[in-house]
Amino acid sequence: MRFLIQLFLAVLFSSAAANAQAALPGEIYLFGRYYQAARENAPLEPIEWQVLEVEEDGTVFMAASHAIDGRRFNDSSYKGGWEKSSLRAWLNGEFLAMAFSDEEKKAIKESNIENSRLWLLFETEQNLTSDRIFLLSLKEAKKYFKTEQRKLPATEYASMHLCRNLFGPGGSWWLRTSGLMPGRVCSIDINGMPFLPGAPANSDGGCVRPALRIKPDGIKLLRRKAD
Questions:
Q1: Which pTM value belongs to this model?
Q2: Whole-angstrom Cα distance, residue 47 to residue 69?
């Protein structure tokens, strides 16, 4: 009897662990909340995230499947790239506080982020920052998405904040890699192509596609989007 009980518990915990680790690249999960509708006093609604990779330790690396907002990379002149950007401060400050519960905040892993810039056509690494919420680098955008997959739809709220193009919601989305030209930041254009010269950091309406990592013990908080 004791053996059967131990076997049952082993299967139970094994099954729970398997379910917790069941996330696969490409799957969409709901986690956190942010404005979605283009109207005043809009409610906070679940944010959709696409799994990019499940890392060796079980950490789930995800990026938003839609542009959640349209914002400048930096509010004033370009100083210090991602590290000193207004967008980094907003994502790890106001957005983090608003969009996630206390339990969800604990589940978000502090990531060591490589800050990069383009030199000629090479992406060179610079200093590291430690972030809970961040933007993808040029290298990551090319690694995890094919050209067609890089075309980014936008929520109504993001479209209302200038994240749109002549054909509808969605547009060029910011990367954290500094561009070829001084004072500019790389982005992915509406055709899914990297724009290497970079857009001016204080351009209005750049689409914001945040990324984050979920700790293995926090995966239970993810809710798979219904098909």
A1: 0.86
A2: 12
